[in-house]
Design brief:
Layout: E1 14-17, H1 21-30, E2 37-40, H2 44-52, E3 56-57, H3 60-64, E4 69-72, H4 79-86, E5 95-98, H5 104-116, E6 120-126, H6 130-133, E7 139-142, H7 146-156, E8 161-165, H8 170-199, H9 202-212, H10 218-249, H11 255-267
Parallel strand pairs: 1-2, 1-4, 2-3, 4-5, 5-6, 7-8
Antiparallel strand pairs: 6-7
Helix pairs in contact: 4-5, 10-11
C-alpha cells in the first residue's frame, strides 16, 4: 500500500526550508505539487531536484510569504542562521516546525527568533531514519502550537505523529538523549569490531555476544545495567582499563572504552536512584 495521501482540500500551504534527504523523501512520498509545497535551499542542484518532483521553488521571501506551515530541515550548524533569515519573510501566525537534530537549548533559541517575528514555533523530533519509513516516520512535537501542527502535518500526509508536551525542547531532549544510546552503540560496535578484526577473533566475539544476549524491555535492561554499575563499577572500570590497553596494543584508539572506564568509576557506589 502506498503512503502517498489522497488529495485533500485541507492540505496546508507548505514551505520546505532545506531539501536534503529528509525533505526530498517526504515530498516524493507525499506527492506534493507546486500549489501545495514550495522549496527554498541554498544549493541550486537541490532546487532542481525539487522542480523535478513537481514542487515550487523560489527565494526565501517567495517561498515563505504564503505558507501556513514551514518545515525547516537544514544541517544542524545552520539552524539558527536559517531561522533568522527565514523569519524575515514569515507570514504572521504561520507554524514553523523545526525538524532539525539539535540540542534543546538550540531549539529554544530558534523559538525566540520565530516568536519575535510573529510566528508559532514547534519543536519536532524525527525519531528514525526517513528511509524506508517516509511519511510513517515517528514525529514527536512539543510547543504551545503542537496540537495545531499535528493537525496540519497530518493533513500534509504524515501518519505517525505524537505531541509530547507544550515545552519547546522536550521533543528534542527525547531524541538527543535517546541518541546517546543509539549512536553510542554504533560507535561501541565499531570499536569492538576494529579490535576483534585486528586480533583475529571476530567469529568468537560475535558468537559470545549471541550467547549472552537476553531480550528484555528497555526499562528492565536499564535498571539492570545501572544496578551492575553501582554495585560493581570500580571492578568493571578496572577491567575496562585493561580492555583499553588491549585495543591500544592492537593499534586502535580506545575512544569509547576510555569513556566507559570514566562512567563506570563515576557510577560506582552511587546512591541517588536513576531508575
Amino acid at each position: 500500500m502506498s503512503d502517498t495521501p489522497a488529495p485533500s482540500a485541507s492540505t496546508p500551504s507548505l514551505a520546505l526550508i532545506g531539501f536534503g534527504e529528509a525533505g526530498e523523501t517526504f515530498a516524493a512520498a507525499a506527492g506534493w505539487e507546486a500549489d501545495q509545497a514550495c522549496v527554498y535551499d541554498v544549493n541550486p542542484a537541490r532546487l532542481e531536484q525539487a522542480r523535478d518532483l513537481g514542487l515550487g521553488t523560489g527565494d526565501g521571501a517567495g517561498v515563505l510569504a504564503g505558507a501556513d506551515l514551514v518545515l525547516c530541515l537544514v544541517t544542524a550548524d545552520q539552524v539558527l542562521a536559517a531561522t533568522q533569515q527565514g523569519t524575515a519573510h514569515l507570514a504572521p501566525g504561520a507554524l514553523w516546525c523545526d525538524g532539525n537534530s539539535v540540542a534543546p537549548d538550540t531549539k529554544r533559541a530558534a523559538a525566540q527568533i520565530v516568536e519575535a517575528a510573529g510566528g508559532l514555533y514547534v519543536d519536532v523530533a524525527i525519531l528514525a531514519p526517513v528511509n524506508p519509513a517516509r511519511l510513517n516516520v515517528p514525529l514527536l512535537l512539543a510547543g504551545k502550537a503542537a496540537a495545531r501542527a499535528e493537525a496540519l502535518l497530518g493533513a500534509a500526509g504524515f501518519a505517525n505523529i505524537r505531541v509530547v508536551g507544550e515545552e519547546v525542547g522536550r521533543a528534542s531532549a527525547i531524541k538527543m538523549i535517546r541518541s546517546v544510546m543509539v549512536k553510542g552503540v554504533e560507535a561501541l560496535t565499531a570499536e569492538m569490531m576494529l579490535g576483534a578484526q585486528a586480533a583475529g577473533v571476530v567469529e568468537e566475539v560475535l558468537a559470545s555476544l549471541d550467547a549472552s544476549e537476553k531480550p528484555r524491555p528497555w526499562a528492565e535492561k536499564a535498571a539492570y545495567n545501572i544496578e551492575r554499575m553501582v554495585t560493581h563499577g570500580a571492578r568493571r572500570a578496572a577491567e575496562m582499563e585493561e580492555s583499553a590497553k588491549t585495543l591500544e596494543s592492537l593499534g586502535i584508539a580506545p575512544l569509547m572504552t576510555r569513556g566507559t572506564v570514566a562512567r563506570q568509576s563515576e557510577m560506582a557506589g552511587r546512591r541517588d536512584r536513576l531508575i
